[in-house]
Amino acid sequence: MTEPNLPEKEEFKARLEKARQRQEENSWDGSLRAERAGAAGRAWRLSVEIIAAFLVCGWLGWLLDNWLDTRPVFLLVFVVLGMIVGVYNVFKVAKAMNPDDFKD
Amino acid sequence: MAEGHSPLAQFEIKRLVEMNVGGVDVSFTNSSLFMIIVIAAITLFLTLSMRGRAMVPGRMQSMAELSYEFIANMLKENVGSEGRKYFPFIFSVFMFVLFCNLIGMIPYSFTVTSHIIVTFGLAATVFVTVTLVGIFRHGFKFLSFFVPSDVPAVLLVLLVPIEIISYFVRPISLSVRLFANMLAGHTLLKVFGAFVIALSWWGGWVPLAFITALTGLEFLVAFLQAYVFAILSCLYLNDAIHLHH
Questions:
Q1: Judging by DSSP bridges, how do beta strands B15-17 and B28-29 pair with one another?
Q2: Extents of the domains making up chain B
Q3: Quick one: which of A99, B27, B136, B174 could link to B123 by a disulfide (CB 3.0–4.6 Å)?
């Protein structure tokens, strides 16, 4: 048995990697299969998404108010923004969870 | 005795070895101790169980192989073949969170993940790593991640700030989810434990039965939250690598 020379080996390696990638891409249908597994996991993802956006935006508004001495203008603006971001995030996550339901 | 009655006493940080570096308190606490225990437990579990290297794995070896394959498949399904090189990162995060949660279930132990600063540290590490991966891979094109596709230009003025905020909310939502679960679960166990004592032998059986069921649920939560933490890290990584929503 002779040792295959190096360039041939490299080329084979590249072809193997390409084939492997193609096979993996075909087997992945774009939806998050594992995500669907746990209902509790899903519920936690969605609920915390709203609360976190609300908290972060409220905190940001409060910081801006303290900094610019404009209480409570920015707090109110950012709390409303936080609600919008929260709902927007939930919409995005829900879309990723059930891509079929969002097709027109 | 008195300090043991508060359901929140179990989360107290105690300084075991006082240390001070340049005015900053870096004491070795019970939290640090349990982090070291967790790291030691993971290392022992993985090395000892794989020492046999049997073709047909025994009980411990198949548990180690199962956790490896679990994360490997998670990366393959959610990130694709490019995710393979980030396996060590995701695997370390998953095992650390899982073992913190599980060791916290041992009575009289300390749950490291019930403190938001710890979970935030983990989430921030994931967030910074993933952002750096995105920037190094795509350069300035990474910013296109904040511009949603197929949206009219008028709406972009509104949507781009929302996208940017929602990106920076990620480490908070990631850390709050884990921390809130652990804190709530362990507090509830302690509260119902107090009910058992308060109602004594004639009425304590009801909360005792409830605690038993709740303990089972807490083990489930320990696994589930480690899983959710790891899979969200994978999804964020996928966003950074493929730049699509």
A1: antiparallel
A2: 2-242
A3: B174
